[in-house]
Design a protein that fits this description.
The chain is built from one helix and three strands. With about 70 residues, it is of the alpha+beta class. A three-stranded antiparallel beta sheet has the order 2-1-3, with no helix packed on it. The termini are far apart.
Length: about 70
């Protein structure tokens, strides 16, 4: 809950900076967003934990493409 609260606070102040992802039950990414995902629409309770996953961009290029 602490990490999500930090993300939400950043978002309220216009700081995005990270891409979050949502996964299906098999662990495949469904979609990515600059918004904090998953969106809960309500304040989190102290005992609640909601996983927030960050997209880490790893890109590879052949030398000829550069």
């Amino acid at each position: 809950a602490g990490a999500l609260a930090g993300f939400l606070e950043d978002r309220r102040h216009g700081r995005v900076g990270a891409t979050t992802a949502v996964f299906d039950r098999a662990g495949r990414a469904l979609y990515f967003s600059k918004e904090v995902l998953p969106y809960t629409g309500r304040p989190l309770g102290a005992a609640e934990t909601i996983p927030v996953f960050h997209h880490v961009g790893v890109y590879a290029y052949r030398p000829a493409a550069l």
